[in-house]
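Retro notes, item 3 of 5
We never archived the inputs for the zinc ion complex last cycle. Fixing that now. Sequence and ligand:
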Amino acid sequence: MRPLLSAGDTEIYRVEEYRSAMLPVEEMFIGTEALRLQIAALGPDDYEASSDRLVMASTSYVVRSRGFVAVVDTGVGNGKPRIRDMWNGLTTSWLEEVSQVVDPAEVDVVINTHLHCDHVGWNTTTDAAGAWVPTFPNARYLFNELDRSFITGPDARVMFERNGDFWADSIEPVFVAGQADVVELPHRAAPGIVLEHAPGDTPGHMVVRVLDPSSGSTVAIISGDALHHVLQVATPGLTSSFCSMKEVAEATRRALLEECAATGVPLLPGHVASRELLYVGADGEGGFEVSDGAH
Ligand SMILES: [Zn+2]
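Structure as it came back at the time:
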């Protein structure tokens, strides 16, 4: 597999678990009536007009920086019991694709940008006895206290009712195995890999800043669900109905878009299907637009 991006001693690989016209527009976003013209103008990799559904990908990233390897976001996972039909007992070749980049036994850290069930699934696989155990046997799994307390607190019960108990099959086994580290943010996992607090979608949502360790410059920002769809570049106020802190999420999104528009650094989002590198430009009226990357 070829890297999506490389700079100095750092390489980023993109692994797509699946893509699907999965969610009706109105289920994904709040307040889409005023955006119907923009939605109708989207291409087929962003929107399926026949079903009025948004096309979403599930993406993970493998970052190799001076020999240190991080896996960022682990999708829905295989064989997980889930409420949503499409995710229930999903079978994909995600692990084979990751294994083309790195032997799972050689992954140093696993980072879930946030603790939603479509970002933690491949944290675990089943052992011979059918128990959920860490997929990456020698990795440290990095969490922060805000999301750890969120996922073990009362607000998470609603998510488990909607999705299935992904704490029990995808996160708790990592703690039981002694492979979880609860870190303070920002956290430098390696010279080129920094976890930063980007709250909103969950209280402890993080983005991962990937740096060229030689120059210290930012190569890309793996942005998780700070942004779910390209629609939110031109309309940062558009908020996912799954966000737990909607106003905070918008402020986080605007700050990321501002940085990317000013610097030309690409975002690597969790669900955008139409672009592997999401470049952002200024639209000339104080807002943002998707750009071709020329800066
Ligand atoms: Zn997500």
